[in-house]
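are you around this afternoon, could really use another pair of eyes. what follows is a protein written twice so to speak, once as letters and once as structure tokens for the fold. i want to understand how the tokens follow from the sequence so walk me through it. anything you notice is useful, everything is just below.
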Amino acid sequence: MTIQRIQPGPRMSQAVVHGDTVYLAGQVAEGASVAEQSRAALQQVDELLAAAGTDKSKLLSATIYLADIASFAEMNSVWDEWVDGANPPARATVEAKLATPDYFVEFQITAAV
């Protein structure tokens, strides 16, 4: 079985396709709020899924990391607009210290191809 690496770098790839599954690296984005960062990061998710030959209707799982769980509702307002409501993934949301205090939210996605 082949492995396809999308946007590989020296430390990691932004996505890896193995068989019929695509694994995305955690996606973060700049912005002044959780909502802005969520919209931008989910746009990146869409682009990576497209590069792998799939889309958000084929999400399998999502793990969402929030720097402050108090922003759960703000993130969910963006997620609910973005996610394919007919095909929602299994999902977990946790509070976690992110790589830099400038990041408020990070999305890790696994999808079928």
